[in-house]
Amino acid sequence: MFDGANATIRKVNYKPPEQRKRGPLFICGKCNRALLYRKGGKTYYCRSARYESDSECRCIKGKTADIENTVLTSVLKMAELVAGSFKMKKSVMGNCSLLEKEMADIDKELMQMAAKKMALYDDYKNGKHTREEFVAKSEAMRERMELCGERQAEIKDQIEEINRLSDTNEEMKMLDEMLGMTSFELERIKQVVDKVIVHAPDELEIVYKANNFIREMVEVG
Ligand SMILES: [Zn+2]
Fold first, then answer.
1. Distant-in-sequence, close-in-space partners of 56: CB < 8 Å, separation ≥ 6
2. Where are the beta strands (DSSP E) in 21-129?
3. Cα-to-centroid distance, 23 and ligand 1 (Å)
4. DSSP character at residue 33
5. What is the pLDDT of residues 75-116, one digit of tens each?
6. How many A from CA of 55 to the centre of ligand 1?
7. Burial (Cβ within 10 Å: 0-12, 13-18, ≥19) of residue 129
8. Residue 122, number of CB atoms within 10 A of its CB
9. DSSP per-residue string spanning 3-30
10. Cα 204 to ligand 1 centroid, rounded to whole Å
């Protein structure tokens, strides 16, 4: 019975050879071939080194744990950076409905002001104001209307930016998932990383996926 239980556990823990699955992510910096994953899982190495004894690829060999940790650390750092800048933008720009309310209030004020302006002109024509009073009051109104217009343009930009950012919710979800990684999770890493070129065991070039938001953020910022 004990033996039977062990057999079951062994079966559950069995993992298929991972070199095919892992290979395409890690690329040899010398010959551009996918690195292999040595049996037992301790080393990544280039297959060329196996057949050509003087191959430059012989130096492309590194501990899987070291290489994966380097990639994990840099992906996490990147995700943190991107998530931070998303969150900062969102909080700085505040609540969309507050902005929409302010926009409506300004619309109302502008309409009232237009009515007042007409009334002011009537009053002036009817002799209730001197010309100086009329000019001063109209000028004050014009300035106020200009300010209102500027504020409305600002609000419009902010609302557009918020809408643009809310399009990134899917990406935020993906970032949160990535930030939750405590160990190297190949499938998650592959969502954002196209390939990792190993130039030397301690010299990795991480190529983020094209059209990927992380890449965009990194290139812009
Ligand atoms: Zn190679």
1. 30, 31
2. 26-28, 35-37, 43-46, 61-63
3. 12
4. P
5. 999 888 888 877 777 676 667 788 899 999 999 999 999 999
6. 8
7. middle
8. 10
9. HHHHHHHHHHH-----HHHHGGGEEETT
10. 14
Which strands sit side by side in the sheet containing 43-46, from one edge to the other?
35-37, 43-46, 61-63
Query: Residue 110 Cα, ligand 1 centroid: separation in angstroms?
Result: 70
In which element (H, E) is residue 200 found? Answer: strand 193-200
Between β-strands 203-208 and 193-200, what pairing exists: parallel, antiparallel or unpaired? antiparallel
User: What global pTM score does this model have?
Assistant: 0.59
Q: Where are the beta strands (DSSP E) in 54-100?
A: 61-63
Residue 96, C-beta contacts closer than 8 angstroms, at least 6 positions apart: 159, 162, 163
What residues does each domain of the chain span? 16-221
The dihedral built from the CA positions of residue 9, 12, 13 and 16, taken in this order, carries a sign that is positive
pLDDT in tens, 159-168: 887 777 766 6
